[in-house]
Amino acid sequence: MLADDKLGKLREDYRLPMPEVYYQAFEKIDRDENQELIVVEENGEVVGTLQLSFIPYLTYQGGTRAQIEAVRIRPDKRGDGLGEKMFRWAIARAKEAGAHVLQLTCDKQRPDAIRFYERLGFRGTHEGKKMHF
Predict the structure, then answer these.
(1) Which CATH number do you get for residue 46?
(2) Which domain holds residue 56?
(3) Is the pLDDT of residue 16 over 90?
(4) What CA–CA distance (Å, rounded) separates 109 from 88?
């Protein structure tokens, strides 16, 4: 699902067998207590994923920020409400973990996703910048 869209096809290596770097990344994330990888299965098949990260920091009196990344829904499951259920779960999980904010980034080339996030209550309150290496 990582390479199953126009942007993913440009940056992911979707050969089979899957390159070792993906296994290494999974192991690193799996060992990190501040990371949660969520996999949604239906009839034994993966239909959705997301990564929820908890970031401790000094501001907000030593607060915790939660961040959603790597949201993917299998194409034939889009529009069925699965994404909303996953996000409702992530919102509840972030609150349960004591996070004071839940954030995400979205490529500006994904207008449908941006509308979806805004419908869920996410607001564009900050201007984000990236530097790729």
Answers:
(1) 3.40.630.30
(2) 34-119
(3) no
(4) 24
